[in-house]
TrEMBL record:
Naturally occurring in which organism (per UniProt): Scleropages formosus
GO cellular component entries: exocyst; plasma membrane
Entry's family note: Belongs to the SEC15 family.
Gene name per UniProt: EXOC6B
Protein name: Exocyst complex component
Location of region: Disordered: 206-248
Domain Exocyst complex component EXOC6/Sec15 N-terminal: residue ranges: 44-85, 101-199
GO term, biological process aspect, one: vesicle tethering involved in exocytosis
Length: 789
């Protein structure tokens, strides 16, 4: 019962406190302390205070917008009052205005310190935190903490708000960092799109520069981004420097027909970076933010610089690799130029040096697998575009162009392999016959492909034949195609005309001296190559050799470097074709000798025949007929070649006949067999005397058989006295007869004389002849021993 009365008393006292002026509250409080329940009263009082606080907060929230409107109206009134202050009005009006101004200023000052105004600030910063306007929210918290709350610090709610400011700042920092992480993940996924756009811009800029200058493309790209004045700069003294948009990549469609592409940096909303940078700057943690951003971007750089294992298989693999790298550095370049110190030039250059070394290493590795010259050429153009794009953003790309010069050597080797197959196919498919032309159009078409002029041939009526076969114009055209292919790779490498000319000439020399030379050697030395084919190869190489100065002029025309320039590389094609022609000539000589040997294998002499036949041997007649028909084909050969071939054949025939006579298997030779052999040699001499190849003076060709002739004359005329008496003299009739040869043949004849003439010892003439042979043999042996001593 007592507790109920105490509670009722406390309620009465509280109502009295709420309704009584503060000057009269003393007696009321004394009545509380006179009682025994003052502790319970204090609890009751605390509860009542909390209720009133909630009612006040509800009231403030309810009248928040009206309060804002009132403040706005008051500010307008203050402005009008200031205008009235400077107006030249009457004394009463001026005093009234000053009084009004003072009243308004006092009202504003009091309202700014009142409880509803403080709560409005807190409610406003919470509203900003709900939107992505974090930087203004932090500014509001700062103003609230350092300006507003100290003025109303004696109110309890200010203490609560001060405790929550740190929590709100942490929330803002975490939200901004989350947006930054989303931004980093987004640009990692879409860096290829950014790079693709940047490279398209660079290609478009190159095309425009070329069209405007009317000159050969230089490959230099302009910076494909806005001027620095148009970019956003971190200020730190004002509001957010960028438009408030969600982070991410804007979707942009590929429109090939558009003349102007959006800037690569326009595909990215950088506001999350700027916001996070502002927030960490305001919070005093800018160094932490910079360290985190650079660390994450370094990780992304390492991922970007890891090419796919099958990148070398297609050009798209290389293009994607380059797009990612360009996209990465376009972003970093934009951040470098639109923020103050988030990244600096040293940091970006460090990343670029890392990227450059890894890119070059990857390209060297993957390009080494490529065997298609078209793919290598496309890759070179892509690398040039990649280098020009990044050069437009201020990055040094000299090492890329140095690597392209290395790749050019690889490209040249691939071209040589390709043209080796082309040349072999041309040579294999050629019929090695003069090209027949039946009309003017065909003739003009061929001479349009190959520089050939022959006024005498042009006068002849159609149909007629060109002296060379089809592989001559085909090879000439392919050499020009090779030169064009070399020129394509040398373009846009920032090389001078002299350097390009030198590169093309060196590559062409390799083509002629190594590739084409090997193919010609293969065609000449392969099996089943006939004399007619060898003759045509000699004719063809002669015309190709004569066309070398036209190739010199062709290279000079496309490089604008005169062929007589000092230190200019000369073409070695003439030496190549000369070597091939010499090889073909040697093959002709060898082939002819092999044919002669084949005929000689058919020789079937009866070495003990008592007498000779009436005509030359059949095998030799066939051999002479073959030589006549063969040398008739040599009419189109250069004179010296035909003469050398004819002389070589006659010498080989003479040597082979002598070897046939002196073979160890031939143990006996009768005078009749020697007479038959003499008929065959005379047939050979008639062939030589007839002049199968024009150009020999007198009986020069007969000299090939002079050794045989003198040896046979010595034996058939049995003129040993003259031989032995004149031996060693320059005017000796049998100067070309070697005593060893004479002795060997004489031994064969002595054996024959002994075995075939059983009763020779009973006839005085035969005995005298045998004695003479023995005497001659003895004298020859003495002559030989004298020479040896």
């Amino acid at each position: 019962m007592a507790s109920v009365e105490a509670a009722a008393e406390h309620e009465r006292i509280l109502r009295e406190i709420e309704s009584t002026d503060t000057n009269c509250i003393g007696p009321t409080l004394r009545s509380v302390y006179d009682g025994q329940e003052h502790g319970l009263f204090m609890d009751k009082l605390e509860g009542r205070i909390r209720n009133h606080d909630r009612e006040i907060e509800k009231m403030c929230n309810h009248h928040f917008q009206g309060f804002v409107d009132s403040i706005t109206e008051l500010l307008k009134v203050r402005g009008e009052a200031q205008k009235l202050k400077v107006c030249t009005m009457g004394h009463d009006c001026s005093r009234w205005c000053r009084l009004q101004q003072c009243n308004i200023a006092a009202t504003i000052d009091k309202l700014s310190h009142c409880l509803p105004g403080t709560l409005w600030e807190g409610a406003g910063h919470q509203h900003e935190c709900l939107n992505p306007r974090y930087y203004p929210a932090l500014r509001t918290l700062e103003q609230l903490e350092h300006t507003c709350l100290p003025r109303a610090s004696h109110y309890r709610f200010c203490t609560i708000m001060a405790e929550n400011i740190l929590v709100l700042r942490t929330q803002i920092r975490d939200i901004a960092m989350s947006d930054l992480k989303d931004f980093l993940e987004s640009i990692r996924k879409h860096s290829d799109k950014i790079g693709e756009t940047a490279m398209k811009q660079a290609q478009l800029q190159r095309t425009l520069d070329s069209a405007l200058s009317h000159q050969q493309r230089t490959g230099l790209s302009r910076r494909p981004r806005k001027e620095a004045g148009q970019s956003t700069e971190v200020n730190g003294q004002g509001g957010s420097p960028v438009s408030e948009q969600d982070s991410g990549i804007l979707d942009v469609e590929d429109e090939e027909e558009e003349e102007e592409l959006p800037g690569a940096q326009d595909l990215v909303d950088f506001s999350p970076v700027y916001r996070c940078l502002h927030i960490y700057t305001v919070l005093g943690a800018r160094d932490t933010f910079e360290s985190y951003y650079r660390k994450q971007r370094r990780k992304q750089a390492r991922l970007v610089l890891q090419p796919h294992s099958n990148m070398h298989e297609t050009l798209d693999g290389y293009r994607m690799f380059f797009n990612h790298i360009v996209g990465f550095f376009v972003v970093e370049d934009h951040v470098l130029h639109t923020t103050r110190g988030l990244v600096n030039r040293a940091y970006v250059e460090e990343l670029w040096e890392l990227a450059l070394s890894k890119t070059i290493a990857a390209l060297r590795t993957h390009s080494s697998y490529c065997t298609d010259p078209d793919l290598v050429l496309d890759l070179k153009n892509l690398i040039v575009l990649f280098a020009d794009t990044l050069q437009g953003y201020g990055f040094l790309v000299n090492q890329l162009f140095d690597m392209l010069l290395e790749m050019r050597e690889q490209y040249g080797e691939i071209l040589l392999k390709k043209w080796s197959g082309t040349f072999r196919q041309i040579l294999d498919q050629d019929n090695y016959s003069p090209i027949p032309v039946s009309m003017e159009e065909e003739y003009r078409c061929i001479v349009g492909q190959f520089p050939f002029q022959d006024p005498e041939l042009e006068k002849l009526p159609y149909p007629k034949k060109l002296p060379f076969s089809a592989f001559v114009p085909k090879v000439y055209v392919q050499v020009k195609e090779f030169i064009y292919a070399c020129l394509k790779f040398s373009e846009d490498l920032h090389l001078s005309s002299t350097e390009i000319d030198d590169m093309i000439r060196k590559s062409t020399n390799l083509l002629l001296t190594r590739t084409l030379s090997n193919c010609l050697q293969y065609a000449i030395k392969k099996k089943n190559v006939g004399l007619a084919e060898l003759v045509q190869i000699i004719i063809n190489t002669t015309h190709l050799e004569q066309s070398c100065h036209f190739l010199e002029g062709f290279i000079s025309n496309i490089t604008n470097i005169p062929p007589d320039t000092i230190n200019a590389t000369k073409l070695y094609g003439m030496a190549t074709f000369k070597d091939a022609r010499h090889t073909a000539e040697e093959e002709i000589y060898t082939n002819l000798n092999q044919k002669i040997d084949q005929f000689l294998q058919l020789a079937d002499y009866d070495w003990i025949a008592p007498q000779a036949g009436s005509q030359a041997s059949d095998y030799l007649s066939d051999l002479i007929a073959f030589l006549c028909s063969t040398f008739a084909v040599f009419t189109n050969l250069p004179g010296k070649v035909a003469q050398t071939a004819c002389m070589s054949a006659c010498k080989h025939l003479s040597t082979s006949l002598l070897q046939l006579l002196l073979e160890a298997d031939v143990r006996q030779v009768s005078m009749g067999a020697l007479q038959q052999f003499n008929l065959d040699v005379k047939e050979c001499e008639r062939f030589a005397r007839a002049g199968p190849v024009p150009g020999f003076q007198g009986d020069t060709l007969l000299l090939a058989f002079i050794d045989l002739r003198q040896l046979l004359d010595l034996f058939t005329q049995w003129d040993w006295s003259t031989y032995l008496a004149d031996y060693g003299r320059p005017t000796c009739k049998y100067l070309r007869v070697n005593p060893h040869t004479a002795l060997a043949l004489l031994e064969k004849m002595k054996d024959t004389s002994r075995k075939n003439n059983v009763f020779a010892q009973f006839r005085k003439n035969e005995r005298d002849k045998q004695k003479l042979i023995d005497t001659v043999v003895k004298q020859l042996r003495n002559l030989i021993s004298t020479q040896q001593s």
